[in-house]
User: Fold these one by one.
Assistant:
Number 1:
Amino acid sequence: MNKKQKKMLVRIIIAAILMIALHFAYAFLGEDSVAEDGTVIREALVREPVWFFLYMIPYLVVGYDILKKAIKGILNRQVFDENFLMVVATIGAIAVALVEQNGDYTEAIAVMLFYQIGELFQSYAVGKSRRNISALMDIRPDYANIEKDGELEKVDPDEVPIDSIIVVKPGEKIPIDGIVVEGRTTLNTSALTGESVPRETDCGDEVISGCINMTGVIKVRTTKEFGESTVSKILDLVENSSSHKSHSEDFISKFARYYTPAVCGSALALAILPPLFLLITGGDPAFGTWVYRALTFLVISCPCALVISIPLTFFAGIGGAGNAGILVKGSNYLEALSRTRIVAFDKTGTMTKGVFEVNGIHHSGIDNAKLLEYAAHAECFSSHPIAKSIIRTYQEGVVWKTNEATGEAVPVPCEDKKMHRGEHRIMKERVTSVEEIGGNGVSAMVDGHRILVGNNKLMKAEGIEAMECRYVGTVVHVAVDGEYSGHILISDVIKPTAKEAVKGLHKAGVRRTVMLTGDAKSVADSVAADLGIDEVRSELLPADKVSAVEELLESKKEKEMLAFVGDGINDAPVLSRADIGIAMGALGSDAAIEAADIVLMDDDPAKIAKAIRISRRCMRIVYENIYFAIGIKLLCLGLGAVGIANMWMAIFADVGVMVLAVINAIRALFVKKV
């Protein structure tokens, strides 16, 4: 509990003790007398005004802030809220006790007392939600270490420019996104991704701010300013998420705006019209009875259970999702996600790793390792992703297993590929006469041999007959001294959880999954078939993806939502156009993260189905609270209007319902098993 909550608890305890003490004192300091009709009347030995002033002490102790808020609301012309209802109901109950001279002010104090207990409980629940989000917010780094004159100096991360070298020691947070240039370590990424398994990091690996360095000292070259780094963007998303309200929250706000004045008018009518009718018809008007019923009606009708529990449910849902590595920019997106029935994906970087790997060497006329060595050295001056994948595979010292019947070689898995890097170094001094042949490949002299590495067009241009590949992927042909020596098969790697992600979406009620990609049809069809995706559209430009999403939007049913999942700069227009844009946050582009409504911090596509399940559970809790609160209130309002419900039942209908609704709302925080 914070100081404010502790102070409120002390006030509640003091008021409760005083109220109970006065109640028993009133009973003890009095005597019974019998009226003419035979009824027993309890008469106080102490005068009525004394009891009034004594009872006002606990009333003001527990309710002075409610009175203050109600007066402030009246002065600001925002009269009709729960504070106003509480003040009117309790002052009315006090007035009835004064008129009847019965000294029973307990009900008025009890109403205020139990209302404050409900407020305290609600404050604690919101605090718990905030603490869950604060755990996510704790990723903010306090400083960055810059090396000056051989010593480390702590500086504000905002002051560190791009391309600076920062030092991160064990136990410290990585303050700014960058690339490791020295050292190796293990990173704890749980605050960002919700993933508890540490991540191994070596030289050349990209690291993102907010991760905790666990084992070794590393030097990082910054690639972004602090304001543009991952941690800053996450904090901005979380801090601004409450500004995007859901339709349910907007409905509750409008409902309360009209509901409260209507209830006050109904209570006034209940206090005046029945007694007037009885007076006109010659019956006993019993004004006190009807005023008491009207006051009970007011307490019952207080809409705080709805006004508090609905936003709290969304707040808890966003906090729970954040702890699972799913950042939702607002409750409106959480609500929309619950109605998602169509999910479209980008391929590269979303369902695949976006990292090209050598998957095989086919029809090699020379030793497989030698062919790869020639190709890697010929490509060593190129920055193309295909060239980098060939160089990386050579440096890792991959062992090749050849199928004698087909002549196809596949890489044998190695537990620690990095251990071979020293043995397979690229020596650029072995390479001369490098010539880039635009769109076709490269020609170079390696150890005195003319090496050609490229596509079919390059082979045809050189009069070399290339062998066709029957596998899907990018085929790189290699020729040595004018003789065809085989080809290298390179393809993007499907993420380990991608297949599970598609299955999870279908289980979560998504009726249609679509892949939208710029890749060749054969590659796209192969990946879609492997993953079990319902539909694939390939060879699309960024504008074509937008058109495809617009077609899907037109084909969907009413009230259904379409989500698009992407990671690249070219996905930003599509993410904005879809009903819900979901971006990959770890390696996704800044433009994609900015355009998206939901960000997956660990790039795991399986989290999409989890996000949908979290949103549906959150909405289920919202509707449970709405139906429960309105149902109980309508029942008690009816009972109060006919005189069956007293002030104690009114307290349950107001505070009791609110407490139960808040307890139910807190369930949205716990998403581990969702």
Number 2:
Amino acid sequence: MESYNKACFQAALEGAVLLENHGSLPFRKGEKVALFGREPFEYQKSGSGSGGDVRSPYVTDIHDELKEKVVLDEEVTNFYADFIKANPFDWNGGWLTPTVQKQPMIEESLVERAAARNDIAMVILERVYGESFDQAEKKGEWYLSDAEEDLFQKLSRHFRHIVVLLNIGNPMDLSFLKRYPAIDSLLIVWQGGMEGGKAAASLLMGEAAPSGKLPITLTKSIHAYEHVPFGSYETNLHEEDIYVGYRYFDTFAPEEVLYPFGFGLSYTKFAISYQNGGWDGDHFKANVLVKNTGSVAGKEVVQLYTEAPQGDLEEPKRVLVGFQKTKLLAPGESETLTLSLPLRVFARFDDRDDSKFAHSFVLEKGTYRLCLGGDVREAKECDSFLIPETKLIERLSAAARPEAEFDVLSQHGKRHIGVGPRVKLPEMPAIPYTGDKGYTFQDVRNGAHSLKEFIGQFNVEELAPMTIGEGWNSPKASVPNSAAVYGGNLEPLTSKGVEIVTCCDGPSGLRAKDERTHIAIPVGVCLAATFNPSLADALADTVYQDLKEAKVYCLLGPGINIMRHPFGGRNFEYFSEDPLLAGTMASAYVNAYAKHGIAACIKHFAVNSQETERYYENEVLSERALREIFLIPFEMAAKTGNLHAVMTSYNEVNGRHSGSNAELVNVILRQEWGYQGLVMTDWGCRVDTTLPKDEKPIEIDRYSSTLAAGVDIYMVQTDPVKPAQGIIKDVKEGRLDFAVLQQAAYHLLDSVLFLQGPRD
């Protein structure tokens, strides 16, 4: 294991976002700095739960990385080191970790002595959230804790310059910036994996210039999100509709924004100029010149937004349609970037039943203005094009639509969402049953027989158990503490030579409890803040070395849901509030892992936006919001052609659990997007029963409903054979078509063919 992982370091470096800098950064070599708090010694590489908890060989901390570069105040350092010894970090096994760790109330006399010796005070704020719990509007979570508030009060009385770093995965309240004007520099370093502390120190010293941009909007107050119902134990009605994140704030409440989407400072300056643009087939090509006009090397992100015409379908003020990051530009150096914008990014979904283009993506007639700049607020109009008549882009269907009427936000007051006829579900083609012909899985691999011929040998009793994953920590797995195994873990598939696939959690690297340590990469929001999907290849290369050694070829991640509300517990795992940015990053990581024969299993399909009552709560939203916002990242990843695994979410989507939502999986994912890979449930999810209404539903024991919805494997059970008896009974009694079971087996075994194929 190297003591320095270049890929992880570069991603953490490029993801950090500089929000304020009034002269304190970068530090000068030998500058006198006092580090306050326990956080400089305990850099947090990730959030908690299955999206974090990677046992890495090391985690770089900011104190150790800075101590050879600046002069750190010894008295302050010793004070916190002694406190940490007496109050060690509480990781709680990597699950439900305390949001903030215990902090001392520092004596003001110590602060006063430190101010007499040092030029700058630096404070690092940490927050840890994760699976199973959401953030709350209280001290020590959204707001500063009492100890943090006390520290800033004392520092402000004695220091003229305070630098603050945010080692976070979720946004937090930043109103304290106004209360303490001595804070003149603010840098978000996110949770940057095992190299995060080293990357943060490098940026503090000016060894590199910050180049990250905000993948979310940061508001002045949490009350700016009062239009977003969140945290219900039963139903979350998406009253904001298509106005998620900056789409809302830029349209309705620009005054609520503290730092806009796409914002990020540097130690240098750039001139961005539009050269020319025009249509090349179904892509708009825009050429943009970027010049470093400052005094140090740096990278810049070019962002293009559209201002669409306000036709029959109202539009947010601006929508991101393209972005690209430059190479490292020396002072005075220029680079011309070509942004290729597919026609679809300009299209909007028409969910009106009475429309000529009902349930379709369309390009409405009118003038589309392109705006170029460094963030959504700063972008200036640079070009435009005219669509003379409304144009059909893609005709789809009324799938996963709401089951009850409601009203949503509109620039005209309210928009009414009605109910209507539902889409017809596709039929599954049957594979002729032949009985055992002696065909082995190796015969399929070498082309002697097809996968369908292989599956045709098995009856219902033999196929049913394979559609239930075996776990947790199956002894058949290639690594301890695996999430599940599937494939050749059961007879008669074992005797037929079907290999076993081991699944492990993986948004932040391989989460396993073997004797080895594993690479811990930056969390999703940090990766998105890089605005640089090209980093995915190097990160996948380095994580693949762990996967190959552990023989884990199905990695459960990345998480690609939309960050709808700041309080979402798994926001650190996800990429962005913007679907194009999230989808671009998701596609890059799916492609990067597929090059190594790894299934990056995207999750959680779909609309997972909170952890509160995640097994039961119902996300209710319009078709338009579903199609334009929440499904886009999944659609983009599916259409890469390199996606091999999808995990459904726990929640309901418009009244139906995702793990048994046939319209979501069989219609949208499979029929419309053309995805024919493996779909699995999240672990221990609730599903909608297939039992007749006069029989008592036993939600968690009815695995047939997942199969009927196009979900191939229910995760997980210790012994898949016993719960499979319900599937067998449903097939024999005519409640479940045997063809559906065969189709699930096809998807499952096809993934085994890919994942257990030749390695690089």
Number 3:
Amino acid sequence: MKNLGNRLEESNTDEVFLQLSEYEETVARRERDLELHQIYAQVLESSHRAVAVIKLNKEIVWVNKRVEEILGYTSQECVGNYISDLAFGQETNMLVLKDALETIQKGKTAEFEHILYKKNREPIWIRAFLKPIYNNLNEIDKYCIYGQDITKEKESAKAIKESETRYKDILDSISEIIYKTDAEGIFTFINKAWTNVTGYDIEETIGRNYLDFMTEGEREMSITNKKNVIGNQNNSSQREIIIVTKSGEVKCLELKTKPEFTERNEFIGFSGILTDITVGKRMQYYQELLSNYVSDFVAVHDSQTRYLFVAPSIKDIAGYEPEELLGKPSFDFYHPDDMDKVKNFREGNISGSSDPSNTITIRYRKKDGSYTWIDITARYFFDTYANAYRTITAAKVADLRVKEEEAIHKALEEQRHLNKVKSDFINFVSHEFKTPLSVIKATTELLQIKMERKVQNLEEHIKEELVSIDNEIQSLATLIDDVLRVEKIEAGEVNMNPKVLNFRKLVENSVQKFSTRQDDNRHVTFNVFGTEKPVFIDAKYVEIICNNLISNAFKYSKGRPDPIVNLIYSESDVVLHVIDFGIGIPEKNKKQLFSTFFRASNSKDVAGTGLGLSIVKKYVELMNGKIEFISQETEGTVMTVTLPLAKSN
């Protein structure tokens, strides 16, 4: 008031009243603004929508009570915190939010739908409207968000969509064609079965007249039938119709149709069902066709080799009912090894380059999975009913003849094999037995000369030469043992005496034996993996297997790293890996590796007979095991023996 008094003294009365008036207007305006703000706050507070004021950095400034009802947070929990910390989660679409904020900063309103999370972390759908808020400097530093919970709306929409999808799936899963047309005969609805039967997509069918898919003669009949059905209101009609598929094939369908009318009896179209009865209708035709050809296993095939007709005789030949084969490719029933023969035969038949009376003998898979030999003749012809080319085949069982031919062929092969074995054995004996005997003879002659000349240190010379003779005798004894083993194997006289034994101990014995024999101080690295379990094996033959594989690992890897032997126990078997880093096996020799008397082309400088691996393979197989290998020349070989575990009682 003192300042005011000073001003009264310094100013005239009119100026003072003018200033007082402006001051009172300002106070009144602010009171009105405050009253409006209070009204707006009450309106926003009572709004059915969640309303919040948020800074551009996502810090919450103010929220109404609806926020607490929707999200579960109180006003105190919201204000000062960031909305991203409270309500955002894994499914919140951050790209949508980013776009919305960019829109706000341009002074525009943004609208979008996204997922927020309640205080209990339950996700809900929100439809949000964002409006920019300006400060005193007319800059956008906040935005107001209006949110509406649309979770139930989303769930309802999802349920409706799922219901429509289920309805469509049901219609598309049935084999009958369901359709609707308008009064002009234009398709307005048709299910997926139409595509399966005719090849026409639904999109290229809707909007077309049903008459477009019929043969010319069928169209006239359909027009007449339409008039009769419409004249008999509410009466359904049933008949057979002929249509032409997209590929030009003629098909016979059973039609059940009913006219539809408005409440004022105005005709608005047809609804009905079409059933493909082509197969049944053609059966009679093929029965008549059958009488013109041979009577055994007779079948008619389409251009994709699918069965269109199968004679009842298939039941006796292969165990199938004719209906089980219809629609299936005949090629699926032929043995894979006979497919090239079948394809060449079919191509010759179609092109006319082969005599129609020609026969091929192939294997046909029976219902029980076994194969029977059949002799097949075939003829390619034009099917006037289907307006397409077909193949008719006739087959006779040839098991007895094929078995007799196989027996003769086997006898010849066995004779050839026996002759080869005899020849190989003679060559083998003449070479392999001759070598150690020659060495022994030369050593004894040299020793005799030294004794006659009474050379110095004669006793030492004798010891050295006796060691050489002993080594050759050992080699000769091993060779004789291997030859005898091969002879017993060939004669089928190997007597297995399997028992439940500790396989690890047997392997370990061989490992120790060969690790102490090496002149270069190499030894085997032996590893065991898994829990040891008993194995049902013959110890004598296991020893031969292990000795041979470990001996080879050393023999073919001179100057290389130590061999490795891994023993691995699994749930059902035990696996023995013998690994060396030696000369490996050439690719061209791998198929013959287990053949008797065979030696790889890169092993000429290493002593051996070519008998060991053939013996090992036979012994492994006699114990219900298997032997395999992987190898790369110059890098090494892994021999793998797998034997079954002993069965627990």
